Amino acid sequence: MYVGPRSLSTTARLMALATALGFGVGSFPTTALATAQPGDVPDAPAETSAPAVGDETTTRAAILPVIVEGDDMPEADRAQLAGRLVDGLERGDFEVIAPDDVVAASSAATSCRDASCYMSIAKAVGASHVVVAVVNAVDRDYKVEVVLVDGKNGSQVASSEDSCQICGVTEVGDLLDTAAATLRTKLDNLAQGPATLVVASTPDGAQVSIDGELKGTTPFNAPVLAGKHVLRISYEGYITVEREVDFVEGIEDVQRFELEKVPSRLPARPWGWVSLGLGIAGVGTAVTFSLLDDRQYEFGGKCPTKDAQGQCPRLWDTDWIVLGSAIGGAGLATLGVAILLSSAGRRGNKVKAETTDAGGETARLPMRKRLRWGVGPGSVSVQGRF
User: Fold this and answer.
1) Which residues form the domain of 98?
2) Are β-strands 252-258 and 241-247 bridged in parallel, bridged antiparallel, or unpaired?
3) Which of 89, 95, 165 is nearest to 132 (CA)?
4) Which of 288, 215, 293, 219 is nearest to 256 (CA)?
5) Is 379 left (phi over 0), alpha (psi -120 to 50) or beta?
């Protein structure tokens, strides 16, 4: 029996309906099947939209036509050199816009040599960077310079320069391959994003300086310029630390610092008590002799040589004793207080060591006590663990 197109359409509808009922799929597209006719071409799946031209998150390098200075060069040789440069850059993880496409978008690309022109071309082709290659040829001596330019501001990002003597187009192409490798590494890093510096310090709040310029305080996390720089971490009362760090585009460099306190130049704690005791004694001496000043020169209520009136002809003159004792006592007392306060701060900042036993419990190790000295009236005491 002949089965025509209408019969095929009916059969298809019945099979679709049976399948939908068998699997319980109530939303099966029977309407689409019913309206499909033999020879109809099904709609193509929707394509994924490509990133918009000029997207700032994408690295695109627009290659300008090779500029030849000095001796003239055949157009075929220029095309060959441009092809070597394009092939070298296309090995990177970024988009490359060939010279022909750049010229088609902007005719100024053939003679572009300034920042404003580079920016205009980058905008015209939707590129983030522009690659400029200049070949200087003089009697088969070639000098090759390839420059990578930022398409946003026209500034130079990277460059490569090389030369060869008594060589041909093939050797010049090799120089362009080397230059392309240098620029390719730079563009690959740029495609990964800027260099980032993360600084953590103990204690927090330390100042972070790069090449002498204050950038912030720890904890610090910010993008930085790529290249070698001097990183400086400083905190009042702690030893300043400097490091030379090489930042790379696309790499997060994490630096951690354990800052150490500036060591105290004062003597140990026992000497503080000694100094304080001597200072108090000196001040007491000054007070005692100040009370004797200008009094009759007597010892134990007796005058060695009395005059006719029964008075001592001599008086106590203690000005110099009072002055010296007061100055010396005050200085020693101040030094003793300073030593005691400094040693108390050092003792408070000590952290007891911890150890973990086999059962996973943490225990503190006993700290060894330092000797303590004491000076009292007519005695000297020593305390500590022996």
Assistant:
1) 60-191
2) unpaired
3) 89
4) 219
5) beta
The predicted-structure confidence for 219-229, as pLDDT tens digits, reads as follows 999 999 888 89
Question: Which tens digit of pLDDT belongs to each residue from 335-374?
Answer: 778 777 766 655 554 444 344 444 444 444 444 444 455 5
Closest to 128 (Cα-Cα) out of 61, 193, 195: 61
Question: Global pTM?
Answer: 0.45
Report the pLDDT value the prediction gives residue 314, as an integer from 0 to 100: 62
pLDDT in tens, 146-199: 999 999 999 988 888 999 988 888 998 899 999 988 888 888 877 777 789 999
3-state secondary structure 317-347: CCHHHHHHHHHHHHHHHHHHHHHHHHHHHHH
Q: pLDDT-based confidence at 50, cuts 50/70/90?
A: very low
Helices (H) and strands (E) in the chain, counts: 8, 17
Q: Structurally, how many domains does the chain consist of?
A: 3
Rounded to whole angstroms, the Cα distance separating 167 from 149 reads 28
Report the pLDDT value the prediction gives residue 338, as an integer from 0 to 100: 77
Separation of alpha carbons 328 and 238, rounded Å? 32
Phi/psi for 132 (5° steps) reads: -115, 125
Residues 294 and 376 in one domain: yes
Q: What is the pLDDT of residue 139?
A: 87
Q: Which among 127, 86, 132 is positioned nearest to 110, based on CA atoms?
A: 132
Write the CATH number for 239.
2.60.40.10
Residue count (the chain): 386
**Is residue 1, in this structure, part of any structural domain at all?**
no
Which of 258, 282, 313 terminates a domain? The answer is 258
* HSE-CB for 119 with a 13 A CA cutoff: 8
Instruction: Calculate the dihedral angle through the C-alpha atoms of 270, 272, 274, 276, rounding to the nearest 10 degrees.
Output: -150
| Residue located via tokens 């260099």 | 195
Strand partners, 62: 97, 130
> Where are the alpha helices (H) located in 130-247, listed in sequence order?
169-192
